[in-house]
Every structure is written in C-alpha cells, then in structure tokens.
Specification:
three-stranded antiparallel β-sheet; 844 residues; 17 strands; 14-stranded mixed β-sheet; 62% helix; alpha+beta
Length: 844
Amino acid sequence: MNTQEAEESSLSPSEGLSPSEGFTRVALLTSYPLYWRTNNRDATDHARVVHKLIQVFLDIPAASLGVSEEGRSWNWLDPQAAQQWNDEMQREFEDYAVQLQTASSESRFLDAFNKRQCMFFAPLYPQNFLAALKKHLDETLRGEQLCLDIEQILSSIDWSSCSIFWSLSLVEFAVSQGRIIYNPILALWSSYPTGGYWAPPPSNDLQSQPAAVPNLSVDEVSFLLQDVMWGKLETVFAKIRSFCGLGIAQPEFAKDREAISPVFYFAQYVNPPSCPEELAAKKSDSLYPLVKTCLGSDDPFAKEVSGGVLEGDLLTLRHAQIGRGVYHPRYLIFPLRKGKMFAEQELERDLYFIANQLSYLEFSIAHESRLISTDYEPLLSRQARWGGTLDGLSELVNNAISFLPTISGGLLKKVYLEMEKLSLTLRQVQSSLEKVSSDVAQLKRQFGGYQDGSEDFWDRKLTYSSCPNTQLSDLREALLDAYPYHYWKQPLRTLKEWDEQLLGSVGRSVETVNSMLQQADRMTQESLEVWTRRLGIIAALAAPVLALPNFIDLKLDSASLPQTLFGKVFHEVQDLQTVVGYLLSLALAALFVSSAAFLVSLLWGLVSKKKSEQFVTGIRSFRDLVERSNFPLDDHRKLDQLDTEACQILSSLWTEAHGLQAFGNQRSFADWLLNAENALKKRLRIVKLRSRRSGCPLHWLAVKGLSIWLWCLMKVEHCLEQSESREIYDWLRQSRRFRYLVYLFDLMPTCIPLPRALCIYRYKAHDLISRTTISDWDFERSLRRAGFPLNMIPSLEKWLQGLYDAGELGALISIDRFVDCLEERGVRAYPDPKAVEKWQGSLS
C-alpha cells in the first residue's frame, strides 16, 4: 500500500457528524527514557544499539532521516549520506563511552551527544516494516519469535480503514541531577504531518502529496488513539527497543511504586476553538468522551484533571493515573486557533517542544523522588532502631533514680563507675543521633531544592497561561505537586518530627545521668568527709591507749604502791593492757580478712574489666572489617575471608552478650535458688524413704547433710529477698548489657557487604533483642554491594525468612552452626548462580 492508497482508504466521516465537531488528525507521542550508563561496556553497547536501530530503520522503504546539530530544523539526507552519518555517530559515541570512565561530570558530554540529533520518518506499511525487521533481527530464535509477535500485532489492525505514519526522534539526550538521560520520542500520526518538522516537507510528486484529510468522529479518534496507536503500535516499537537492548527507565520513587513515562494524545479539530472557554462551552459532546478515553476521567473539569495553555496555542490537559504500584501521567493536547491563521509548522514544532520538555520534567520528578527514597530508607531504618533503644534507656535510668539515694560505700562507687561508662555510651548515641538529624535536615533541604528546580525549569522553559474561566485545575500547580513529590511530603515531615523526639529523649537521658553522676560524686565526697572526721576522732582516742605501754614499762612495784586511789587505777590499767592486746589482735585479723576480700574484689574487677575490654575490642575489629569490605577489592576471595573473620568475631560477641542476658532479670538468681531448693526437697524425700527402708547410717548422714544444705539455701534465699544490693547488682548487669547491645547493634554501620555476617545480624539478632536490626532496604543494599545479582536476593531472603518463621533459627542453633550451614549452601560474596538451588529446605 503506497501513500496515496493509504490516504484514499483512510477513515471516512461518520453519518450525521457536524464538520465543526470532527477532527482532522490525531497523534500519539511518548518517550522512552533510559539511563546512559557511564561504564564502558554499557555505554558502548548502547551506542551500538542506537547504530543498529538506525540501520534497521534506514532499510525501511520510504524512510527518511533528518539530522541537526541543534534540533531546530532538520537536514533530510539521502540514503548514502544517512549511512555515512550513522557510522560516524557510532564511532563518536563509543569514544565518548571511554571518556566517561574518567570524567568528573557526565553533564559536560550533553552537548557532544546532542550534536548527533536525528529524526526518522516513514509511513507504516506492515509488509515493508516486517521485511526490514526480519532482515536484521530474524537471525536467532528469539529474533524469529519477535518478528512473529510483531506480525501478529500488525495483522490485527484493519489497515483498510486507517493509515499510520511514524516519526522517531532517536538521538535525544538530557541531564537530570548529573546523570545523562537518553530520551527518544516516538510520534504516531493518523495523517502526514505537513509542518515540515516531524517529516520532510511534501514534494511536488503526486505519489507523496498528502491527500485530503478526512473528518474523524470522536469514536474513530478514540479508537485510533487508544486501541491502534497506544494498545498495538506503541507496543511494537517498545518490543523492538527492548530486543535490541535499550530498555525503559521507570524510576521506583518509593517502595513498589514505579513512574511510567508520560503519553501525549493530540487531537486537532476541523474548526479549532480559539480559547479554552470555547472548547468547554461548544465542544463538550466530543470533549467528555475523549477525556474519558485518553485520560481515564469521566469529567474533564474534575479536581484531578488539570489544564492550561502552553506555548500560546496548545491547550493541554493532564491526569495522572495512580494504580497499584504504578504512576502514569497522561496528557491530552488540543491546538487553538490564533485569529484566522493556523501555522502547521509552528504547531508541530511546539508539539515536539512540549512533549520533549514535559516528558523530561516528569522523568526528573520521578528520578529526584527516587533519590529521596534512596536517602530516606537508611534514615528511617536507623531511627526505628533508636526508638527501641531509647525506650530501654529510659527504663534503665528510672530504675537508677529509684535506688541511688539509698546506697553508699562500695556499692555507690560501683554504680558511679557504671554510670560514667553509661554516660560515655550515651554521648556516642547522642552524637550518632545528631548526625542522623543533620542528614534529615539535609534531606529536607534537598527535597525543597528539587521542587524549586522543577519550578524554575517550568518558568524558564515553558510559556504558560492558566484557564481561570473553565473550572480547570491549574496545570502548573498540579505538575509541581505531582504524585512522586506529594508522596514524600508527609513521610519527610514525620521523619523530622520523630528525629526531634529522639534527640529530645536522649538529651533528657544524658542530663539525667549527668545529674546522677554529680549526686553520686557529692555523696562520695560527703561520705569521705564523714569518715575523715571519724578517723580523726579514733586517732585522737587511740593516742593515749598507744602511750600506755610506755607508761607501764616504768618498773613500778604494785606492792609498794599505797592502797590508794592511784594504786587501784594502776591495777585497772594493767588489766586494760590485756584488753588492748586482744583488741589489737582482733584488728589485725579483721585487717587480714578485709585485705583478702579486697584482693578478691580487685581480681574480680580486673577480670570484668578485661572482659569489657575484649568486647569493645571485638566491636572495633568487626567495624574495621566492615569498613574494609566497603572499599573495592581486587579479589573477591578477600571479601570472603573478611566475612569469615567477621563471623568468628560475632560468635564471641554473641556469647558474651547472651551470658549477660541470662542474668539480666532481677529475679533470675532468686529463681535459680528456688529451683535448687525444690530439687533438694525432692531429693531429700527420696533419701529419707531409703533411710527408713534400709536403716543404713550412711543414709542417715545423707539426710542430715541434705537438710543442712536445704536450710542454708533457704537462709540465703531469705537474705536475698531482704537484701537491697541484689537489685543494684541486677541493675549493673542490665546497664552493662545495654551498653553492649548499643555497641553491637545501634552504633554499627547499616551497610554490611559481608553476606554471612549480614545474615547473622538479620536473623540471629532476636537471640538478644526483640526488634529487627537490619531493614529490608539495608539487607538488599548490602547484598548488592557483596556482588549478589538482584534476582538472587529474593530467593535467599525467602529461604531464611521461612526458616526463621519455622523457629529453626532460634537460640538453640549457635552462630557457628548457622555460619557453617550458610557456607555449605553457597552463601558468600559474588555467589555462584547455581547456589540458588540449595537455598531451600531445612538447615539440617
């Protein structure tokens, strides 16, 4: 079918259609944004794919290629010049791909890429189109299947009732936040675009002259736009791009929420309205069904539909369809008549400009929202971790407040030393939260900067006027508050409020602990002053007693002393010397016992201090391994060695923290005594029964021995119940465990590219705490840094989560056993793709 035949067989006007209500032509425009990768392989592959696509389209009969260095007007080339231009473009793009490797900025290559802007145009003849595809793509089984699919789609269109022309701006680049974006634009036309921008100007040859344009009804327009162009032909071009290796970037601006590139529907009335008010008043019969078909809204004046006039002559309506995990903006464009003249060339140029600028703006909004999501998720996971930590901190501080005024002496000193350590830990927590707060504030400023940048882009690039008399929502306001932007407003506000609450909470805790330290220090000083005064009194009283031996050494004969008052006193003093001797002996014995107790206490303190130092050293060693793993390594095996070392350290840290957990409860030791008492009672009943039956003296002695032990246990339990020091020692253990868990979980890096160590944190943390320490975001990000392909991560997560839900990853399985199982199943950095087959079933 040639051009003339296609135009003669095009749609005819419907019966009873008013000429002023019909449409002369329609068009569909859409973009295919793609991140132009900076690594050599991908960028080179993209350059080759673009060259291949141009080569395919050049072999289509009646196809034309126009080139331009500025995109303002096209120089339409002959086939030989077009082939030479294509080869030169490929060499340039491959050279740019190499230069991008060491470039400090991608944006400086924008002008170099855009010097090769080009526009394709051809009538869509199914047979010629398929023949060109089969020549280049029908070399593999996959290519054959693609050609069969396209042939099936094209054969489903009734070509006797419509003619289609296509234009493709194939080389179109932009920059969004420093990233080069490849953004070609496809246009499908119901008639030959005569303006000279989307297609070569019609020649005088009768075969290429556009025929009389039919008067299309609103039903025919809806069918062409939605069913033929969008539902089928756009799918054909998308399949070709995907097959050649040029996909479509759909930024995931939030979890499970993707932004699809916008589609632009263009409908030109036979008698275009002169203003938006005229369209709303006189053409509502065609406006309502067309808006419903193209935009998916029953009412063009509904709140979710916005509109305005762009570039002075194009009334643009917008409606964003928000489905389950999908955000898809749609536009419907009507040209307006300016006076009595209607310039086709200016109209087509403006249509290209609007589609190009708005598609870029929509993509930038989604891309910037994706960047917000990337920075938001780590902050959210870190704040969630701090929330549970600060709840435990408040309980710990409140317990200390309750008993601090009632203690003194050695216990006070131990509490004082523990509070000093707790204060240092809290300062680290506060410092970390202040860093998070700074990041939150920076994220909010970044979000505001993105919004300001979009607003500035709109004001600089587009000429816009609103439609105040049509009840249409303002297009500019709707776009600047697009769903990806609107989605993040409340989460960022909540993040900021939560951050302020956490900072306030830890600040109050730090102030409370500092006040308690000051109080404990004051109590210690007061106690020291009291004991100083007491020792002074004792020394003053002891001086005369110590002088007695010197006095007694005077060789006096008691018989020669007169029986006077002085003689009686002398005899009493001799008796007092004996008493003093006994007292000194007792003092020496007490000094020996207290010295022994002091040495035992000192040794125990040294052991505890050594354990604490070992724990902190282990934490530092693990952090060092994580930091080393975050840097690029020349050998993947080194990353696996770091993972093995990290797992060994975590095993010892888990053991130490779990030991503190066993005594963390205030009732733990008392409960152990009660269990021991019950066991002794049971054993005593058995031994008594045997003693009665046998009458053996040994059984009688056993009964007496068990009775004594039982009596001792009951006395110890009674003393513990009456002792206030038990509560204090339990608090000391709880405080120490709290500090360990803060170092182990809360102050750890969120990105751990060591797969087995990461799995310990993700699935074994519940042995020690009741909250999740590694979020889904951090888990995926860490595994990707460890060389895991995206398609393997869900398999690993599903397998381990199933084991966790089944209770197989509880406290009964040790860290070492868990790590051995992971290593046996192939969980390591840069895993073998076949390892996925092992990620199922039980660990045993």
